[in-house]
Amino acid sequence: MNIYQQIVNKKLHNITADELMKYSGEYNISLTPDQAKKVSALLKSKKVNVFNTSERIQLMKEVAKITGHETAKKVNQLFLEFTK
After folding, report:
1. How many domains does the chain have?
2. What are phi and psi of 34, to 5 degrees?
3. What superkingdom heads the lineage (predicted)?
4. How far is CA 68 from the centre of its chain?
5. Comparing C-alpha atoms, which of 61, 68, 60 is closest to residue 31?
6. What range does the domain containing 17 cover?
7. What is the C-alpha to C-alpha distance for residues 4 and 8, in angstroms, rounded to an integer?
8. pLDDT at residue 47 greater than cutoff 80
């Protein structure tokens, strides 16, 4: 894993609910404060490499349980942009 991947994964593992709310506004992703707290807790509890397709897909399934399918789909698209 290169340094860029390490930085991105570390940021995701340490992201706060407030940061998620800020990013959701910037990227037009529907997210409630309660969902942001739950997703933040999920990201902190799971050490997922978002550059690994199978790990990212599994994470998105768990995010979808919290936020709904459409929101998880938008989040996955955002991850894909960052992982290119």
Report:
1. 1
2. -65, -40
3. Bacteria
4. 13
5. 68
6. 3-82
7. 6
8. yes
